[in-house]
Amino acid sequence: MMKGGLAGLMKQAQQMQEKMKVAQEQLAALEVTGQAAGGLVKVTISGKHEMKRIQIEPAAMDDREMLEDLLVTAYAEAFKQVEAANSQVMSGATAGMPMPPGFKLPF
Known about the structure:
By secondary structure, the chain is α+β, with helices and mostly antiparallel strands.
């Protein structure tokens, strides 16, 4: 009886590992764009938080300090979008596997 339970747990762990691999591939291919000031500044990052593109409208270039703030704001918005996608994808990958309370995956 215990042997069967262990085999079942191992099978679940293997399935979760396969799902995690697919989830990581999905996140690696993900690109999201955060924007500030109604789209004057846009920052696109990957699912691994790597900056891919920055778009700045000419109107945002008049004030350097404002532009710096808008870049930070746009990046922060994109970062939050990646984190939300990361949580959603990873929760799908671990669905059905009992996780200890407070356990967070390192992705």
